[in-house]
Specification:
With 314 residues, the chain is α/β, with parallel strands linked by helices. The chain folds into two domains: 147 residues, Rossmann fold (3-Layer(aba) Sandwich); 144 residues, 3-Layer(aba) Sandwich (Rossmann fold). Helix content is 47%, strand content 18%. Strand 9, helix 9 and strand 10 form a beta-alpha-beta unit. Helix 2 crosses helix 10, helix 3 packs parallel to helix 4 and helix 5 packs parallel to helix 6. The longest helix has 22 residues. It is elongated, with a radius of gyration of 22 Å.
């Protein structure tokens, strides 16, 4: 009997200790890169979301570039090794992060995905996914393009990292909508690796090689900024219809001066804010939804100063 009581006491102590570790644990927020206003806005949301979550701390990190996938994998593995309470992850590749996520799952560390999804083989290793509906956002961008350029002509697609979950949905939605609702011919896509300077050079080349280009789509923040700068430098601003993605200060300036006609702005702040809160809900065994749409707002010159736009611009 005494042995049984000792065993029960030990089990209870283990459970209490495990709960204490979680309740005083680190929420590791790991994003595609720390060097982007978009991801820094995610950090702002996560920082605000941590307020009132007593007993928890947050760390925030990301690789130097979105294409440094191996570095992001290492960050997740390091988080697992230091026994964090939960991981909020924006995976830069749909497959490469799955083994590290599996290690977290085996260590009973909850994973909440934001922004981009992983392949179906990793579905069991995360508890919730918060993001823009990227396919729907891509469709909205395509509709905005058709409304401005019409049904025929050439449209260039300036994308970022091939195969990234958000890129598949976003550019896929854009291309599919154009194919279904117009006869527009697509030039590209071209991949900037989320480097503004690369996007600028690629856009400059595309504009030079296609003097009859009617429209151009920049599918994420650094790509759209590079696209806008190339349009301005080449004298094509306002002459080629440009639709961008995300909403930093550069892109807001391009909307106001007419270089870019519309930008699809995601709820990046909400991804951070709700991401950490969802992670804590999982730790504390509260119900969470498997997928949550954090929304997108199409921002143009006519509505850029309206509350709906100001709530998502950064």
């Amino acid at each position: 009997m005494r042995k049984m009581y000792l065993a029960l006491a030990a089990a209870l102590l283990t459970a209490v200790t495990a709960h204490a570790n979680a309740a005083n644990g680190e929420i590791a927020v790991i994003v595609k890169t720390a060097n982007s206003n978009y991801w820094q806005n995610v950090q702002k949301g996560a920082t605000e979301g941590m307020k009132g979550l007593n007993g928890y701390t947050m760390t925030f990190q990301g690789p130097a570039t979105e294409s440094a996938v191996a570095d992001e994998v290492n960050m997740v593995e390091n988080a697992v090794n230091r026994h964090v309470a939960a991981i909020v992850l924006a995976p830069s590749d749909p497959d490469a992060l799955i083994p590290a996520m599996k290690k977290a799952w085996e260590a009973k560390i909850p994973v909440v995905l934001i922004d981009s999804l992983v392949s179906d083989s990793g579905k069991q290793y995360y508890q919730s996914f918060l993001s823009t509906d990227n396919a729907k956002a891509g469709e909205l961008c395509a509709k905005a393009m058709i409304d401005r350029v019409g049904q025929t002509g050439k449209v260039a697609v300036m994308s970022y990292v091939a195969g990234a979950g958000s890129e598949i949905g976003r550019v896929g939605g854009f291309r599919k909508y154009l194919a279904q609702h117009s006869k527009l011919q697509i030039v590209g896509p071209f991949y900037s690796q989320s480097q503004m300077a690369t996007a600028l050079n690629q856009t400059t080349d595309v504009l030079s090689a296609n003097p009859d280009l009617k429209g151009i789509f920049g599918a994420n923040e650094p790509t759209a900024v590079g696209m806008g700068r190339a349009l301005a430098q080449s004298g094509k601003a306002g002459k080629v219809v440009a639709i961008g993605f995300d909403g930093n200060q550069d892109l807001q300036g391009f909307i106001k001066d007419g270089t870019i006609q519309a930008i699809a702005v995601q709820g990046s702040y909400q991804m951070g804010y709700k991401g950490v809160k969802t992670a804590v809900d999982v730790i504390e065994h509260k119900p969470v939804t498997k997928q949550l749409d954090t929304g997108v707002v199409m921002v143009e010159k006519d509505n850029i100063d309206q509350p709906a736009a100001k709530n998502v611009l950064y």
